């Protein structure tokens, strides 16, 4: 439910609004990843989440830098999608009664988040180009590459973990 209108009447306002939402997305991910690391059984999966947590902290910093420059401050606007993805991920992990099945659930939850991030960052980077914010484009590009890398790494780990999940019980 929306309490008030953000009154987005030009592309720059939409751009800033979506950056503020991304800041909330990334902040929520820095809270979710430590729980995902703790629940992972596979060592490589744990390491992948751990290194993406470090990258995510950098994603927060980059967004703060862009927002400070574009809007004068870096305030988040709550991302409801990430809140829902986090709840769904936690539910799937809670319901998994086998280590490999739980890892498979964690990977799937993680990849949903990466794909969501890539979709939002892709649109925002395009707007940054149109608005002539070349320094923002560079920063957003670095983040998108790291999200892509995290997603591909999770696919590789899934290929190894899924057969164990298939053999469970
Ligand atoms: Fe991120
Ligand atoms: Fe990510």
Provide structural commentary.
The protein has 169 residues and is mainly alpha-helical. It has a single domain, classed as Ferritin, core subunit, four-helix bundle (Ferritin). 83% of the residues lie in helices and 0% in strands. It has five helices and no strands. Helix 1 (11-39) runs antiparallel to helix 4 (99-130). The longest helix is centred in the last third of the chain and has 34 residues, at 134-167. It is elongated and about 55 Å long. It starts with 10 loop residues before the first helix and ends with a helix. The mean pLDDT is 96. One fe (ii) ion is lined by residues 26, 29, 56, 59, 117, 143, 147.
Give a nutshell description of this structure.
This protein is mostly helical.
- Outline the biggest β-sheet: none
Rough shape? elongated
Q: Can you name the CATH architecture?
A: Up-down Bundle
Fraction of residues in β-strands: under 5%
Uncertain segments of ≥5 residues (pLDDT<50)? none
Euclidean distance between termini CA atoms: 42 Å
The CATH C-level name is Mainly Alpha
Which percent range fits the helix content? over 70%
- SS content category: mainly alpha
Would you report the number of β strands?
Answer: 0
Write the layout of secondary structure elements.
Layout: H1 11-39, H2 43-71, H3 80-95, H4 99-130, H5 134-167
Helix pairs in contact: 1-2, 1-3, 1-4, 2-5, 3-4, 4-5
